[in-house]
């Protein structure tokens, strides 16, 4: 796992707003507590609103969100197709990465419109 991946994982662990100890984060990510302490400092230096300290634990003061990304229907179709191809890739790292990315995208996507919904009525005659 790269450092950037680890920082992202730490942010994911902090998103629930609960206090979490460096020891617990280190255990989940397979690194030392010292590494987590340095990573927390790095995140704070980047401006992430984390409160806490060594020995007590850390908490995210307020949610951190990325700006919205608006995709067209064609872009979504292309993304879906590319993720399906990557998920089936022989390299298990690429497949696992594609599955993780697809899960993150699905988590923030609005629900698809129901297929049974009636079509919109055409506009009536004007005037």
TrEMBL record:
SMART domains: HTH_DEOR (SM00420)
Gene3D superfamilies: Winged helix-like DNA-binding domain superfamily/Winged helix DNA-binding domain
Domain HTH deoR-type: 3-58
Keywords, in A-Z order: Transcription, Transcription regulation
Molecular function via GO: DNA-binding transcription factor activity
InterPro entries: CBASS_pafABC_assoc_protein, DeoR_HTH, HTH_11, WH-like_DNA-bd_sf, WH_DNA-bd_sf
Top-level taxon: Bacteria
Pfam families: HTH_11
PROSITE patterns, per database record: HTH_DEOR_2
Positions of region (Disordered): 108-127
Transmembrane stretches, start-end: none
Name of this protein: HTH domain-containing protein
Organism name: Rhodobacter maris
């Amino acid at each position: 796992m790269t450092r950037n991946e680890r920082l992202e994982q730490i942010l994911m662990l902090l998103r629930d707003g609960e206090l979490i100890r460096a020891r617990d984060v280190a255990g989940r990510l397979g690194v030392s507590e010292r590494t987590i302490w340095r990573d927390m400092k790095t995140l704070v230096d980047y401006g992430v609103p984390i409160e806490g300290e060594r020995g007590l634990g850390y908490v995210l003061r307020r949610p951190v969100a990325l700006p919205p990304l608006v995709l067209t229907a064609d872009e979504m179709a292309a993304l879906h197709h590319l993720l399906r191809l990557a998920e089936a890739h022989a390299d298990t790292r690429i497949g696992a990465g594609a599955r993780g990315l697809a899960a993150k995208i699905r988590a923030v996507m609005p629900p698809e419109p129901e297929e049974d919904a009636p079509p919109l009525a055409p506009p009536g005659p004007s005037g």
